[in-house]
Amino acid sequence: MARFVLRRLGSAIPVVFGITLIAFVLVHVVPGDPAKVILYGANASPEQIATLREQLGLDDPLWRQYVDFADNLLHGNLGTSFLTQNSVAHELLSRAPSTLILTAASMLVAVLVGVPLGLVAGMRPGSVLDTVARWISFAGVAVPYFFLALLLVLLFSVKLHLLSAIDDGTAKSLILPAVSLGWGYAAILTRLVRGRVIDELRSDYVKSARARGSGELRVLLRHVLRNSSVPAVTTIGLQFGNILTGAAITEVIFGRAGLGSFLATSITSKNIPVVQGAVVVIGIAYVVINLGVDLVVGAIDPRTRQEAAA
Amino acid sequence: MSRVKWVALSLAILVVLLLLIAPGALAHVDPVATGDAHLQGPSGSHLFGTDLLGRDVFSRTVYGARPVLIASFLGVLLATAAGVAIGVLGGVAPRRLNAVVMRMVDVFLALPVLLIALILIATAGSGVRSIVLAIGIAFTPGFARVVESSVRRLRTAEYVEAARVFGSTTLRTSWRHLLPNLLTEVVVLGSSAIGWGVLTATTLSFLGLGVRLPAPDWGSDLAAGATNLADAWWLSTFPGLAIMATILLANFSGDHLMRVLDPRAGIRLGRSFRTLATHLSRHGGDTAYESA
Q: Which of chain A's residues have a Cβ under 8 Å away from the Cβ of B106?
């Protein structure tokens, strides 16, 4: 296990390095002088530009600039926002809780809908319930979440006046955004769990458990669900980054002030330090979460440790 | 596949081609022409109603297809080509080079598809051309990963070994033996990624990063209609239904193409498909193979 942990940690290092490199390069691939971009080209005098270039160290050789950038990152310094002159780390951190809550709530929706639905559908393939589950997951894949969000708002807040479409800080106003974002992942999970349950029910250990006289419920919960949970956990981990960015659109629709809407406005206003910061934070969060998932899965299922070594 | 399904699929593809090449054949009203009838519900004269400026929503929905279809087709095509090139390079390269190439692919895989696309648009500016590029680059690592693992599997096949024994160079082996055998897989994976391309393209235009207004586009029209959601449901609903129908059609045709091209491929491709689906989704999931 120790070797597996080390190996897995080792393979994450180049990825993290690459992510910081992408973030670093960003400011240099934006067309035009970064200093002018920062000053919005708004009639900045040559002196202002020269001072800023000096401040940002833009005249240093590239490797030197990268070393400074990485050094700042290691000290938790993500630069300052062009717009507000506040620290990017601070701006990102202050908005993170709202987004993390939405992400967690969406994952909860995905698991609460996807796992039971997949389980029921997989137990009786071809049954009415399976057909229903198939259609629900089919719709989940085909309906874009921004469209689903609007349909839900139309139904539940405009027509029925049941739920608020605008964030007012209560848990109730979290329901619509979480359902619209989580639905698509529920569809993915349903399909995954269904396939696994069908496979597991055919396996020898299930037969022998039944032969020993285990009840159907016990077989399902103790054996099938447990063995189906490994790919489900992996998938949820892999989807984390996508849910996080999906939150961007959901936040825009529901007027929630989170990381996503912040990132979207920063992109349209070319606020590059914020985009850089977000790339680093989201990228590293994704790597860390998948590292965690792999280690958990490695602990649950020793076979995956050998696969990773092969 | 029943005859009814055949007819339905052919008709649907015909409609898509018409939308792409000659939208004027389906809608006779200018999609940007404003009129006096503001926010009218669907009726005989305006099939899908009118918007705030009195523009015909049906016409906008018809003309709004083109930017979405162009962005998703070209974007996926670009990603497929780049992914195959990188995947084959990684697959046939010696161990060190393979490690370098695939670690770079891993870096991009660690960033969500939509984030890569957004970064690209942040640097290249908005517009359909940027969206093509964004989809192309964001989807490439997923393809590269899948193709690389297929190449590594193919490399140990006997006929490839035999070619090598007879002195075939790596380049020749890749071109003559590896690529033709990858073709079916690549075509199927590429066509099934179009659904995700449509979703990504409309998401980006929904955020206002696509066509320049007042040009019609499903994503931006859907977003614009959201402000009048309470009193004019048809504004967002029709572009939304159009997006949905296109994604469904893309997934169905991808499925069908796979069965036609290689009936035995289902099980073998299932694995590649799941890998790609995990990489590209949320934009994810397909129709049939998860249980294959």
A: 11, 14-15, 18
